[in-house]
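Dear support,

I submitted the protein below through the web form. The confirmation email said the job was done, but the results page showed an empty box. After a refresh the structure appeared. I'm attaching both so you can tell me whether what I see now is the final result or a partial one.
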Amino acid sequence: MKKIIFTDKAPAPIGPYNQAVLVDNTLYTSGQIPLDPVTMEVVGGDIETETKQVMENMKAVLEAAGMDFSNVVKTSIFIINMDDFAKINAVYGSYFNEEFAPARETVQVARLPKNVNVEISMIAVL
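What the results page shows now:
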């Protein structure tokens, strides 16, 4: 059974997709970028600020599904500049218990929606 997850505490989709889909006990999130969920404007300034906004958006989506970061089993991180990896990793890592951190890949890409510098998606299980 497929259940659509939506919260107004994370940015509304800007295309034909949902914030997340729950199938049985597995949650598949769409990628989150650093959008303020109220203004739908990009939160910028530096890569740490962008990453924190992405993680807060992800936190809201997880909570809407009755989960938190301890439920996350896999993440995908897309970044514009691999030189930002250490800064992104520091912010990202602060949301997880390192002993139980999820599997992950980090990929440098040419461009992301709204010209942001980071996008993250997750898979979580109950």
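Response: this is the final, complete result; the empty box was a page-load delay. The chain has a mean pLDDT of 97.
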